[in-house]
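Dear support,

I submitted the protein below through the web form. The confirmation email said the job was done, but the results page showed an empty box. After a refresh the structure appeared. I'm attaching both so you can tell me whether what I see now is the final result or a partial one.
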Amino acid sequence: MDWTLFLGLFLQSLICTVIGQDSSQMPPNMTSIFNDEYSFPRDSILTDASFNCKAENGRVIYEWKKDGYVVLNSQFIAVDKSMGILKFLKMQNEDYGTYQCFATNDYGTSLSKPFKMMEARLGSFPPFQTQEIKCEEFKHCKVECRHKPTCLPESQCKVEWKIGEGTKTNVEIDKRVGVDGNGNLHFLWTNMSDWTGQQYRCGVWHEQLKTLVVGSQTSLRIDSATADPKVDPMLVFKENGKALIGEKGVLRCMFSGYPVPDITWISPQEMNIDNADGKYEISDFGRVLTILRAELENEGKYTCKHSGKNETVFLNVTSAPFLNGSNQMQDLVLPEGQEATFRCEAESSPDELPPTRPTWKKNGVDLKIDGGKYLLGENSQVLSVKDVQKSDSGVYQCMSENSEGVLLKEAILKVTDPIKTTVETGIITIKTTITSTDIFTTDIAHTEIVNTDISSNIITTKVVPKTQNSKETGSNAAVAIIVAVLISIIVLVILVIVARRIQQRGSSMDKKELATGHDSENERKETSLKDQPV
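What the results page shows now:
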C-alpha cells in the first residue's frame, strides 16, 4: 500500500471535517424562508408588515435590497442591519417590487430567495343599469357576475351572491343552485320561487382587507312549464386546475338537469375518489374536487361522471425550477491551485417549458465570465473556477426561473493551504523498555518483520513556518494538531504490535522446551539453588 498517498488523503479528510465544524470561519448560512409573494394595501397603517432575516455562523451583518438597490431607513420603512429586520409602517406605491436579504460576514455573503411585494386592493363595480334575464321553469339558467372589479391577490378574493337590498342576505347554495369558478350564479334547474321581486346582486369579498363590494344587479323573468318534464343532464361548467408540488389543486364540474344528477369523480389511475382516503376532498355538492397535496403522480385527466355522461378535466402539477442529481451545488474544500466545479442543472416539471439558463454570482455579486478565472459549460449549467486561491473562497450562487417561480441554490468554496508530504527512506528504529518480573526468551529465527512498508519508509509531515493572519490561525493550528495525533497513533500501533510479537515468541519457546522434557521454570529454580552457598 502507498502509505504516503493514504496519509495525504486521510489528512485532507480530517482537515475538511475540522473546517466544516468550525462555523466561526465559515460564510453565513441563510436559515430564513420567505413566501414567493406578499401583499399589503397602499397608504394604510400596517401592523404585520415585518420580515426577519436570519443566518448562522459568526457575527453577521444584514442588508435588504429592492429591485437590486439597497433599502434605507425612511419615514415609513425601518431597517435593522444587526438583527436583519425589515419593517413597513405604511406602504407607498414605490415600495412594491422584489425584495431580497443579504447576510454577510468576513468569509462571504449568503442570499435569501427573492420575493415579490404586491399591492392588496379591491376595486368597485361600475354603476350599470339592472339587467333582466329570461329563464324557463325546470331548465338551466345562468346569471353572470358582470363587470367584476379588480381584486388582488386572487387568492384573497371570493364571489358571493346577495338577494334584495343591502349585503346581509346571501343566495342559498345547494344541490340545485351553485356558483362556478368565474363567479357566475347557476340555477341547475329553475324554480318559479327563484324570483320573488328582489334583485340578485354579485358581491366580491376581499379576505385580507375584510371588504365587500356589490354590483351587477339582475332581475329574473321565469316562464312556467305546462308539466314537470324530465330534463337530461348537461355540462354547464368545467374547469381545469393547476397546482404547485405540495400545494392544493382544484377541479370543477357542474351539470344541470331535472333532477340534478349526482357526480362521481375518477382519478387518472381509474380509481373512484371519495373523501375517505385523505388525499382528496369533494365539496360543493360534488361539484368541486380538491387534491389536498399535489404530487407529480397526481397530474393527469380526471373524470367527472353521472349516469350516462362523462366529462374530463386536467390537473397540471408544476413547480419552480429544481436541481436533479446528487452532485448539484455541493460545498467544496480544495487546496490552492486546484480547479473548483459547481453544477446547477436546473429542470422544470414534465411537459413544462424549460427554465432559463442559470446566472452565477459570488457573494451575491454577478460573476464576470471572461474565459479567464471563470468558465461556463453545458449551456451555463456548469461553473469552473480555475487555479483557486484563498481569495476565491466564499459563497457561490446559481439562479434560474420559469413561469412558476425562482430557483436559488448556494455552495461554499473553502480554499486551504496546499498539503505537503515528504518521504525519507530508511529503517525505523523503535526503542522501548519492557518492565516485568518475568523473563522473556526468544530466538532471532522465530522473529518476523511486521508491516514492511512502514519498516522501510519514514513518513514525515513537516509544518512549514508561515506568518498567518488572525483568520487563518485557527484552521492551521487544527491541522498541526491532527498531524501530531496521527503520527503518535501510528507509532503507538507499531509499539503494540512489536510487544505482542515478542510476548508470543517467548510463550512459544516455553512450550517447545516442555515438549523436549525441559521445564525452564524448574531449571531456573534448580540453578538458583545450586548457586546458593552450602
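Response: this is the final, complete result; the empty box was a page-load delay. DSSP finds four helices and 40 strands in the chain.
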